[in-house]
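Now read the record:
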Amino acid sequence: MKRIAVASLVALTVACSADRETQPQRPEPDKGRMAPRSRLEGDFLKEAVILYVWLDARDGKCKLREKVPGEIRAQSGSAVKWFIEGSCEGAHTITIDRRLKRGGVLKDLFEGIAPIEAPATDGQVMSATVRKIEEGEKGLYRYRVFIDGQPAQYNSEARDGTLAACPTWPCGDFEFDY
């Protein structure tokens, strides 16, 4: 029995080592300097996000299940969507603030003037079309989620989501100045 367990452990270790060698390895950051944090790896658009909601029985508030809403990667003309999963009993509304924040400045990158909102019930979809992005507007923006007119809550206030915008995708490196 012990021989089988040892043989299985050896086989598993060899398999994991072989798998690790086939995956691209990231170089170690220089000592004394933090490596830049970039989740924007890959040359693909990501135009949809799922917002998971639930009704907290302790205080009766509709809240997000995740602290940070998902990341969006969009270009001029992209139809961006926020899908709502889960449900909050009663009349609760989720809104995405049209004013996106970058470097302390608020900007509306969406076409039209209609609010981006929906009931906080399973299956609802909020959508907006990204207007033409000029080269100088390329960058990372923060979007805010509101529930019933208040900043979205998790166990504390939820963080803002990220929207990476550029004229056409892929558009290279981004300045992390939001």
The two ends are 58 Å apart (CA to CA). The longest strand covers residues 48-56. The longest helix spans residues 2-22. The mean pLDDT is 78.
